[in-house]
Specification:
Blueprint: H1 2-18, E1 26-27, H2 31-38, E2 49-50, E3 54-60, E4 67-74, E5 79-85, E6 98-102, E7 105-111, E8 116-123, E9 126-133, H3 143-151
Antiparallel strand pairs: 1-2, 3-4, 4-5, 5-9, 6-7, 7-8, 8-9
Length: 154
Amino acid sequence: MKKIIILMITSIFLIGCNSSGGSNLVTYDNDKLAKEIEEKGFKPKLPTKFPIAIINHEISSPPTNDHFIVDFTGEKGEYFELIIWDKLVTWNDNSNQEEININGKEGSYMSDEVLMSTLHWRDGDYDYILQYYHTFSDTKIAKADLIGIAESFQ
C-alpha cells in the first residue's frame, strides 16, 4: 500500500513539474502574415501558437527598414507586440533581466507585471522581442505562455 501511495505522489509531482503555462496554446495560422512580411523583404520565423485566439494583426515598419513591428490583438483586447530586427539588438540595462532558453537559444525575460512582460532572443539572422501589454486586458499571460509562443516560431 505504501508503494502505491508513493507512486501516486511521485506521479502527481512529475506531472506538475512537466506541465507549463504554455501548454494551453491555440494554433495561430500565420500564412497571411508571412506573405505580408515576405513582401517587405524579410523571412523570419513567426509564431504558430498563442495562449488566446488572435483576431487581428497589423504590421508597421519604420523608415530605417532594419526592423518591423507586428501588433497582435486578441478577442478580449489582449495586445501582443512582436518586433523583429535584422541586426543584433542589445539592452542598456540588464539588471532586471532573467536568462531563459527558447528552443536551445539564449534569451531574456523581463516583466514589471503592471505594464508589460518582454522576451528577447536571437534566432538565425533575426532578433525577436515579444511583448505582452498587461494594461490592455484583464487576461493574465504568464512567463511560460510567452515562452510557449516563442517556442512555436516556425
